[in-house]
């Protein structure tokens, strides 16, 4: 195989889903924490999430009047990426949402997990999506 052939689609190593026991609150019949499953999102869906987290506003004063500011909410993006990456349990399941009296996958995640568990889920989601470093560290690095 030539070096170029290593880049052909059929030679690309596929990322597998990641399973993690995110919370000790959900246990199986043997008393062991149930694993959550995380999968990578498509580049198209990632672009949609980033767009959802980007706010453009027109500058109305000063030297830059009439130009636009672009603000990216990386905390919102991290949360949406986490929610989007979780494939088990199905956070979009109506019955599961009804059991917590919430509507929407993001609201459900907030009711199911503690903030520390959400942080652990976020790390697993980042790993499933190929991020090797902490997403917040990368955002800061890009800013500088």
Percentage of β-strand residues: 5-15%
Count of strand segments:
5
Structural class: alpha+beta
Distance between the termini: 40 Å
What would your notes on this structure say?
With 144 residues, this protein is α+β, with helices and mostly antiparallel strands. The protein has six helices and five strands. The strands form two sheets. A three-stranded antiparallel β-sheet has the order 1-2-5. The protein has a two-stranded antiparallel ribbon with strand order 3-4. Helix 2 (74-85) crosses helix 5. The N and C termini lie far apart (40 Å).
Briefly characterize the structure.
It comes from Lysinibacillus boronitolerans JCM 21713 = 10a = NBRC 103108. By secondary structure, the protein is of the alpha+beta class. Helix content is 41%, strand content 13%.
């Amino acid at each position: 195989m030539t070096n170029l052939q290593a880049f052909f689609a059929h030679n690309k190593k596929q990322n597998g889903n990641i399973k993690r026991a995110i919370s000790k609150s959900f246990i199986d019949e043997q008393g062991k924490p149930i694993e959550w499953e995380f999968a990578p999102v498509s580049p198209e869906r990632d672009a949609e999430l980033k767009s959802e987290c980007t706010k453009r506003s027109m500058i109305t004063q000063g030297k830059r009047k009439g130009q636009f500011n672009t603000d990216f909410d990386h905390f919102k993006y991290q949360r949406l990426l986490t929610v989007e990456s979780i494939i088990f349990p199905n956070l979009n399941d109506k019955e599961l949402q009804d059991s917590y009296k919430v509507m929407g996958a993001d609201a459900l995640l907030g009711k199911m997990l503690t903030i520390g568990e959400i942080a652990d889920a976020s790390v697993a989601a980042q790993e499933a999506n190929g991020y090797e470093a902490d997403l917040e560290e990368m955002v800061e690095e890009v800013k500088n």
